[in-house]
Amino acid sequence: MQAYVAAQPATGTIFIMLKYLLYFAFLFSAAKGRAQGIYALGIAQDGGFPHMGCTKKCCTAAWGDDALKKFVVSLAVVDTAEKKWWLVEATPDIKSQLHYFQQLTKGQYPYLPEGIFVTHAHIGHYTGLMQLGREVMGTQNIKIYAMPKMQQYLETNGPWSQLVGLHNIKLMHIGADSALALTPRISFTPLLVPHRDEYSETVGFKIKTGSRTTLFIPDIDKWGKWQHSIIDEVKGVDVALLDGTFFGNTELPGRDMSEVPHPFVEETMQLFANESPATKAKVCFIHFNHTNPLLLDKEKQLQLTKAGFNFAKQGQKW
Predict the structure, then answer these.
(1) Which residues is 38 bridged to in the sheet?
(2) Domains in the chain, ordered, with CATH?
């Protein structure tokens, strides 16, 4: 009996230790599951912010204050479990954005990504690839994930064809509606969208990071032209980073807005007006033209958030 009583504290201590070990293992597992994420390396339309040659009120403050400047829209998708990351869009600001990513993540990842996903052949989305050539980085076979027409454009037009010929880049095929798994936790699914396809098709992406899915559509003509229901698509994801190029129809005085078709933020808000607060909260506008008041106007930002929607901020992580 004495031996049994004496053993009790030791047994209890072991039980408590095991309980704590299991608890911390659970926390570690949960943290590992949340480790994947997406960073906004840029939120502006192809010309960035402030915009070249603009001396109007929308850009005046940003010319004099570096803190107000915004890079062209781009994302970093990370897998901390494997210390790998992928860049979405090769913008004219790629040099600054690679450095910015190092700052955001305190240098925990390689300087160059595992690969780059490109949505289409408009200047804000692929021209940064030139920085990978022998005049600058001289990279070796960095993977560029692109749709067939986009690949053909890069292969048959200089200076991009030189990047292919010198093996600075390695073109990787992606197909519409076909999921591409990069790690057990990260996958990309391209979605074809209608958008002035002069040189290539245009896609958005469903990006799976762990248990979460993010919809990224920075450019589309109008939601009504798409074969998918944007409302249904938003309901099926956790976050939807959507084309917010222009806030409204009067943003470019004297310009025929049909020449630059995009769904106005006001239109998208109206489209989702009768949806639940949970659905609206998933919508996060991105890809802002320099004239878009959501870049700086606190009242417009408040108007948007009071209506239940969100707008992307540079450096934000989802």
Answers:
(1) 77
(2) 38-311 (3.60.15.10)
pLDDT in tens, 83-112: 999 999 999 999 999 999 999 999 999 999
pLDDT for 48-83, tens place per residue? 999 999 999 899 999 999 999 999 999 999 999 999
Residue type, 215: L
Rounded CA-CA distance 6/120 in Å is 73
Residue labelled with tokens 């993540």: 105
The span from the CA of 206 to the CA of 11, in Å, is: 51
Inter-CA distances, 95 with 48, 61, 112, 199, 213, Å: 14, 24, 11, 24, 28
Three-state helix/strand/coil letters over 19-33? HHHHHHHHHHHHHHH
The residue with tokens 């222009």 is 246
Strands of the chain (E only): list them: 37-42, 74-79, 84-88, 115-117, 142-146, 169-173, 180-181, 186-192, 203-209, 212-217, 239-243, 283-286, 310-311
66 secondary structure, DSSP code: G
Peptide bond into 184 cis (omega under 30): no
Query: Residues with Cβ < 8 Å from 233, sequence gap 6 or more?
Result: 215, 240
**What digits encode the pLDDT tens for the residues 237-296?**
999 999 999 999 887 777 776 777 899 999 999 999 999 999 999 999 999 999 999 999
Q: CA-based diameter of the chain, in Å?
A: 96
Exposed / middle / buried, residue 58 (Cβ in 10 Å: 0-12, 13-18, 19+): buried
Token readout for 97 is 């954005």
Answer for the pair 188, 203: CB distance below 8 angstroms, yes or no.
no
What is the model's pTM? 0.88
* Residue-by-residue DSSP string for 25-57: HHHHHHHHHT--EEEEEE-B-TT-BSPTT--SH
- Closest by CA to 130, choosing from 92, 97, 103, is 92
Considering only CA atoms, which of 178, 230, 146, 181 is closest in space to residue 36?
181
